[in-house]
Amino acid sequence: MRIITKKTLFKFIEVHPEAKSPLERWLAIMKTEVFNNFQELRKSFPNADKVGHCTVFNVGGNKYRLIVAIHYNRQIIYIRQVLTHTEYNLNQWQEECKK
């Protein structure tokens, strides 16, 4: 899959260097796998959740949340946000997933 706005990941890693390894693992899987729908994605990421138009991944042992929009028909992922667990719980990200 093609991943758009990887710089969002890199900016998050600058602030949270301990997130580098789990985010790089996620990135490597997403770049090499082909997922045709959410059910196929769940085979590799059983903890992924669908929230509106977004998919939310638990990353780094539940320390971080990666929020993306996936266009399965075009095999493109748009990275929306990377949040700490605390930031995620504020629920300020949910409005973007309604669009």
Please tell me about this protein's structure.
By secondary structure, this protein is α+β, with helices and mostly antiparallel strands. It has a single domain, classed as YaeB-like fold (2-Layer Sandwich), CATH 3.30.2310. It contains five helices and five strands, in the order E-H-H-H-E-E-E-E-H-H.
Furnish the topology, listing elements before pairings:
Layout: E1 2-4, H1 7-15, H2 20-32, H3 38-44, E2 49-51, E3 54-59, E4 64-71, E5 76-84, H4 85-89, H5 94-97
Parallel strand pairs: 1-5
Antiparallel strand pairs: 2-3, 3-4, 4-5
Short description:
With 99 residues, the chain is of the alpha+beta class. It has helices at 7-15, 20-32, 38-44, 85-89, 94-97, and strands at residues 2-4, 49-51, 54-59, 64-71, 76-84.
